[in-house]
Amino acid sequence: MAITASDEPVVIGTGIVPVREAWETSLRDLGSHVVRAALKDASNPKVDALYVGNAYGNVLSHQANLGALISEHSGLCGVESHTVEAAGASGAGAFRAACIAVQSGWVDVAIALGVEKFTEVPGSEAESAAALTLNYEYESSQGMTLQAQAALLAQRYLAHWNLSRDIFEGVVIAAYNHAADNPNAMFHGMDEKRYRNQPIIADPLGLYDTAFLADGAAAAVIVRKSTAQALGVASPIFVRGSANAVAPLSLHDRHDLLSWDAVRKSTLAALHKAHLSLADIDWLELWDASVIELVLSLESGGLLEAGKGWQSPPKPVNQSGGCLGRGNPVGASGMYQLVESVNRLQNEDAGRNALIQAVGGCGATAITHILSN
Amino acid sequence: METPRHWRLKKQRYALVGEECPHCKAKIFPPRDVCPECGLEAKTVYHFSGKGEVYSYTSLTDAPAGFQASAPYAIALVKLEEGPIVTAQLTDIGNEPVKIGMPVEMVTRKLRDDGDERGMIIYGYKFRPVLS
Ligand SMILES: [Zn+2]
Q1: Mean pLDDT, to the nearest integer, of B47-75?
Q2: Tens of pLDDT along B2-22?
Q3: Disulfide-capable partner of A274 in A85, A240, B44, B48 (CB 3.0 to 4.6 Å)?
Q4: Do B34 and B65 belong to one domain?
């Protein structure tokens, strides 16, 4: 069966809740809530598949097989369902799984869900559990953490380019200030004084240089373009390109710490599939679980030259506030990027292209999507 | 860490035992039986000297579970003389400021304890400044 233009995946409905510390809610409730909201938004089509992006449910909620659990909890008994895990790129991985499923013709209506529940345990335990996505035998067993990984990158970056940590201030303040307009964000603005008074957590990075881990869920309903037409959907958002590329999991196994191969390959592959170049992209949502990750994503994705990723990018980037301003429900963050971008494209003039990229494991897994209206 | 896993990793942890690629001569650590440089099979045992230099570093006050007793500690990427980079804590630093490029050497130290979980104390490699 040849894949044609009418098989192109499109988004016809979304559901999202603000990122926060949702002590009163469970992983399953968070997930099913946005699944049902997305279905309602899509006028309740009959669902064939639910792909669940989640990174930490196994350890923080002691819960595996979220596919069976959340589909039942959402009233979708009998559908195809399983979890997609790729650390911070889990949500984007679920979205890509849904796109592949509908475009192949094996599934007609798919839901991509990103869901994460961090506040199930005390903060220190959650921070330790977060190291699950590192290389256990050679990183976390040495006392490495997510923040330490980001700090090692930042330290090397500053030394390599002979810069001081002051370069991060503008990037972080911009993220927090962008989040001021995002109703799904935990934080709403940041001034220089507050930034400069932050405690240093892992030299050279301070408290605000790494995104706060939090709870959240976001979902989207994905069908083929032809199905959307049959369902009478007026203005679906098109998924023009999708790509996943990986680099070695451990920082110590990368040839060049400061050049993110996964980001470069994933960006180029997604653009290639969309028959677009970076020049055709109107705005981007890039990964910023820490400030250095955004800097390296901007450089490796080709928006800014090496050594200049902290400068002002030539196109709008992370107008949502990103993970820094939104808060970071890790396995759900990729779906926050995508759902917010879908909703934004629905309110923009036709012909816009957006590049959305989530990165799992400090540069290890990059999943990119190109959305158009 | 589980007993069988710890036992399995003993050689790497206590003696930095890695591999050498018989095809391109790349030195490999951690060992993985497939050369990351040329993609061919590489199972020849290679003993690293344990000498290297700091490639990047940071200092953590907020230690994860099992490591609180050593906090605050410095953790680094150490570039070994033979080429590979390893992740390890720095130890015996004293008042000397850590710098990128600082020569270091491997020592065996207590890495973590499991508390009451399994009653295990894990030893392994750390790196200290080369005594001049
Ligand atoms: Zn080789």
Answers
A1: 90
A2: 777 777 777 777 789 999 999
A3: A240
A4: no
List, as ranges, residues 116-145 from A with C-beta within 8 Å of B. 124-125, 127-128, 131, 135, 137-145
The Cα–Cα gap between A318 and A326 comes to 10
Both B121 and B57 in one domain: the answer is yes
Please compute the mean of the pLDDT values over residues A112-127 and round it to a whole number: 86
Q: Which of B48, B65, B81 finishes a domain?
A: B48
Look at A145 and B60 and tell me if their CB atoms are within 8 Å. yes
Q: Output the CA A357–ligand 1 centroid distance in Å.
A: 33
Nearest-neighbour CA in chain B from A254: distance (Å): 9
Do residue B100 and residue A147 have CB atoms under 8 angstroms apart? no
Q: What percent of chain A has pLDDT over 70?
A: 99
Give me the residue from A139, A201, A202 closest to B87, CB to CB.
Answer: A139
Three-class DSSP category at B83: coil
Residues B87 and B43 in one domain: no
According to the model, what pLDDT value does residue A104 have?
A: 95
Q: Three-state DSSP class for A73?
A: helix
- pLDDT, tens digit, 9 for 90 and up, residues A255-280: 899 999 999 999 999 999 999 999 99
Residue B114 has pLDDT above 80, yes or no: no
Residue A143 has pLDDT above 70, yes or no: yes
Q: Alpha-carbon distance A330 to A348, whole Å? A: 28
- Cα of A255 vs centre of ligand 1, distance in Å, is 14
Number of domains in chain B: 2
Q: How far is CA B89 from CA A66, A252, B16, B67, B122, in A?
A: 36, 13, 14, 11, 14
At A349, the pLDDT band (50, 70, 90 cuts) reads very high
| Of B57, B47, B130, residue with least CA distance to B88 | B57
Own/partner pairs for A1-5, CB < 8 Å, 24+ apart? A1/A105, A3/A103, A3/A104, A3/A105, A5/A225
Same domain, B35 and B70: no
Q: How far apart are CA A107 and CA A104, in angstroms?
A: 7
Whether B111 and B58 map to the same domain: the answer is yes
Overall fold of domain A5-121+213-231: Peroxisomal Thiolase; Chain A, domain 1 (3.40.47)
pLDDT higher than 80, residue A1: no
Domain that holds residue B27: 1-48
Ligand 1 centre distance from Cα of residue A365 (Å): 24
Yes or no: say if A372 and A355 are a contact pair by the CB < 8 Å rule: no
B112 interaction partners in chain A (CB closer than 8 Å): 141, 143
Q: Are residues B75 and B61 in the same domain?
A: yes
CB-CB under 8 Å, A257 with B56: yes
What is the ipTM metric for this complex? 0.92
| A207-229 per-position pLDDT tens digit | 999 999 999 999 999 999 999 99
Q: Are residues B72 and B116 in the same domain?
A: yes
